[in-house]
Amino acid sequence: MNTVIIGGGIIGLSIGWQLAKKGVNVEILEKDKAGLSASRAAAGMLAPQAEMGFEDIELFYLCRSSLDLFPRFTEELYNDSGIKVELERTGCILPGFDRDDAERLRRLYDFREKIGMPVLWLTGSEAREIEPFLSPRCTGAIWIEDDAQINNRLLLDALKIAFVKCGGRLYEDHEVEEIIIEGDKVKGIKVHGTNLNFNNVVVAAGSWSKQIKGLPDNLLPPVRPVKGQIINLRLNDSCKISKVVRAPDVYLLPKSDGRLIVGASVEEQGFDVNPTAGEIFRLLERGWEAVPSIYDLPIESIDVGLRPGSRDHMPIVGDSEVEGLYFATGHYRNGILLTPVTAFEMAEWISTGNKSDVLKGFGIERFYKETV
Ligand code: FAD
Ligand code: GLY
């Protein structure tokens, strides 16, 4: 049984690595260079409790279980790559600055407390004790101690090494032009005009997942690119923020490599990846309102990535009515956080044929059932 994964982002690489560990004959085909797309631009926040909206409870539980899997994931990755990628339990603070913020935060807090999350309500001065660089205008905050973050760039480096060391084959600059299906079975793919046979094909092509030819209409994953811009500032003595701050419309993430990420825009601009003055200005202004001392920090770079957003913003993971055809896409704003659960569950599913209970409800069939 041989398997091909289309896309060398964090999702394709991590499933590939887990399959290779199980002895599966697996290749990853990447149209550009692996690990340079959304997965690299991401901030690396692992904050299911801070990010959750009121409607996302199923997604929240999936995210939460993925966060719990991170220590196992990074330990295995260290054994297979020699690269230690630390899970950083930085904690996350959600500050408010006026009455509207306070009301919004109170509702978020009540909801979290009701479902048993470990959250704390802080006054402005308590919040500044935890993060002294917060604006003195902060009137109250939610504190979530066990949300975390990770260096996603290092994670990608480690995954590439681990995948190859475990026996996987990575082909960069190989764009998959078509998926070949005959009857109710997948037969393989077309690359550089040549048909190649595979028993299993995994679509992990992020924002481009819908662009690959050969899929019938009812199996086209409804995924679109959602542009995100971030600014990388360089921390220095004038601003030594140490907690993740999620203020209204902006987040600030101090990274262990000395960057302070200020992000992120959420834009419907198709496949455009150009940074724009308006969004950068808005992010910096919002960031400065929350943490005024960012004002003097040097700007290191700007990153732009395309989040693969599905129609309902939930991931599309699992098999399909075509034998041997799998999807692992649509991870939208949580692809780094959802990496361990996606990799462990999908690798088990593909290698044994046993469906995953954990991923139940997140398959592509939820979209095409709607239209029958
Ligand atoms: P990608 O990383 O985009 O990889 C897909 C790959 O497929 C690409 O390399 C592409 O070249 C390749 N490909 C496409 N078509 C083909 C083809 N036909 N043939 C071969 N290869 C192909 N998530 C979090 O959990 N926490 C965060 O803090 C966070 N912050 C973010 C901040 C920003 C600004 C952005 C943009 C995203 C953020 N995300 C975050 C979301 C996360 O980055 C994505 O959900 C995740 O990276 C998706 O991974 P992927 O592998 O599916 O996609
Ligand atoms: N999860 C952070 C982002 O998508 O910007």
Structure, briefly:
This protein has 372 residues and is α/β, with parallel strands linked by helices. The longest helix is centred in the first third of the chain and has 25 residues, at 57-81.
State the end-to-end CA separation.
33 Å
The CATH homologous superfamily of the largest domain is named FAD/NAD(P)-binding domain
User: Helix/strand/pairing class, anyone?
Assistant: alpha/beta
**Biggest sheet: strand arrangement:** 5-6-4-14-15-16-13-17
What composes the largest sheet? 8 strands, mixed
Range of helix content: 25-40%
Mean pLDDT: 95
- What general form does the structure show? elongated
List the ions, cofactors and other small molecules found in this model.
Answer: flavin-adenine dinucleotide, glycine
CATH 2nd-level architecture of the largest domain: 3-Layer(bba) Sandwich
Individual helix count = 10
Strand share of the residues? 25-35%
- Radius of gyration, in Å, reads 21 Å
Q: Kindly report the CATH topology of the largest domain.
A: FAD/NAD(P)-binding domain
Can you tell me the number of structural domains?
2
What is the element string, with H for helices and E for strands? EHEHEHHEHEHEEHEEEEEEEEEHEEEHH
Question: How many strands appear in the DSSP assignment?
Answer: 19
**Low-confidence spans: pLDDT under 50, at least 5 residues?**
none
**What's the CATH C level of the largest domain?**
Alpha Beta
Please tell me about this protein's structure:
The two termini are 33 Å apart. The protein has an 8-stranded mixed sheet with strand order 5-6-4-14-15-16-13-17. It has a 6-stranded mixed sheet with strand order 8-2-1-12-19-18. It has 372 residues and is an alpha/beta fold. It is elongated, with a radius of gyration of 21 Å. It contains 10 helices and 19 strands. The structure holds flavin-adenine dinucleotide and glycine (GLY).
